[in-house]
Each structure stands twice: as C-alpha cells, then as structure tokens.
Amino acid sequence: MFATVLHNVKSPENTGMIVRTHVAFGGERLVIVGPDPWRFKKRSQAFSRRLERVTHIVHIPDDDSFFRWCEKESFTPVAIEISESPVYLPRFNFPKRPAVIVGHEGTGLPEEFMRRCASVVTIPQFGGVACLNAAVSCCIALYELNRLRPVERSIVGHKFFVSEDEKPEDFKQLLPSARSGLPAR
Fold this sequence. Notes:
Helix content is 30%, strand content 18%.
C-alpha cells in the first residue's frame, strides 16, 4: 500500500484531482501536511467527485510530525520534485510502503524537507515547460508506482467495474446523479 502526501498544496482543483487519483489507485492514506486541515468545498469536490468522503485522510501540522508519523506507520517518504541530481521516475524502484509527496504549486518542497526524505524523484520532461503542475506530477508518480500491478477489474462500457461490496457505505450519495435526481450512469 501507499500514502499520498500533499505538502502545503493550496489549489482546490489540484487537491481534488489528487484525491480522485489516490482513490482510483487504491491508496491507503491521504496525508495533508500544513498548518490548517483542508476544507473540501465545491471547487475541490468538482475534481474529487467527493471521494474525500471515502478515503482515510490524515492531517499533520508540520514537517517534524510528518517524519515521525512516517516512521511510526512504516511509510518511506519519497518526494516528487525537480532535483539537480535527479533519480528519474522511470528508473526508480519504489519502496514497499511509499509516502509519495508533492509540494506547493509555486515553491515546491523545501530543500530541508527533501533532505529528510529517503528519495527525491524527478519526472523527466522533454518539451518547453519548466515544470509540471503538482496534481499532474502526483498522478504520473502514482501511475508509475502502480503500473506493474495486475489489472484484475473488468471494463463495462467506458469504466472499470467496481462491485457493490467494494463500494463504501452510502457511495451512491456521492454520485452527481444521486444529488440531482437523475438516473445513475
């Protein structure tokens, strides 16, 4: 299993996309590091599809507490950040229980924080863009982490089949059609 960590991420849209990807790949814990707990409102929920209601979210107020939490919970902190001495993502072997960390959209992860991580992994880029969006970086890293897992779900139409016993209690209430009175797709 893995944890997805948002370190001082501020964008509701980025947070929502990361939550949805975390749930889609079967993440164990979603960790929010920063002084204030995240408030899921309409802008983040438009992207998360309200899946924050079905994931285990942990709020950790500061870096020291985060690294203590990783040790206590047996997660290995892996920063996803552009680094001058990179370990590129395609060549990186994830540890058994990684805590995959992305940072603030404008400033990234602090140097001191990255020094405390077991690994700092860089996603290679080939076009004329200096860096990727935080949510995009996180989603790419989570895909790479899970890429070699066997796909055991069938596909129905344009979606993966999820059996009723796998869905969280009251899952249908999270769907837009349940809130709007329209039939579910």
